[in-house]
Input
Amino acid sequence: MDFADVVAKRRMVRNFSERPVDPEAIERILDYARRGPSAGFTQGQDFIVVTQQELKDAIAELCHEKSYVERGFAPFISGAPVLIIPCTTENAYHRRYQQSDKVREDGSEIDWPVPFWFMDVGCAVMLILLGVVDEGLAAGYAGAMDLDMLRELLNIPAEVTPVGVIPIGHPAPDKRSPSLKRGRRDEKEVVHHEGW
Output
C-alpha cells in the first residue's frame, strides 16, 4: 500500500469482527515499532501483546470500557482479538545519558527540556497504528486510567510506564466519535513557516 494511502486510511476504530488476527502480522507491526526513533538509541520502549480473553476483559475494565459502551460504542477493548500495551522507561534514558559518550564534559547528565521517552513511545505508537493499516487491519486507542492496577495485572516493573492500550483487529461497522464533527484544523492554522 502506498504511504499516502496508509496515512489517509488510518483512523481510530471502536469495533472489531471476531475474525482472528495473523500473529505474523502482529510481529511485523511490532518490528516497525521497534524501528522508531530513540534519543541516544536508548530504545526505552517495550510492548506487551495480550490475546487472552480474561486479561482483555480486565484491561477493558481498567480503561473504563463500560463508559464507552454506555455511549453507544462496541466493547472495542475486550472485543478486539489483540491488544498491544506500549510502555516507556524514563530511567532507561537517564541510564543511557549517564554513559561516557553522552555525559557533559563535567560528567553530568544533560538537562531534559522535553521528556523524550514520551516522544519516542509516541513515535512507536504511530508506527504501530500505520503498520496496522498497512496489514489491512484496524486499531483504536484507549488510555489506561489506573496505571498501578495495569502494572499489577501485567507484571509491569514499577519503573515502566504503560502509555495506553491499542486494540487491533479486523474492522467492523462502528460508531464514529462525535469529536470528528469538529473537523480538521485548516492548514493555515497549523503550519507556520519561518516562525509562528
In short: Residues 10 and 133 are 6 Å apart (CA to CA). DSSP finds eight helices and five strands in the chain.
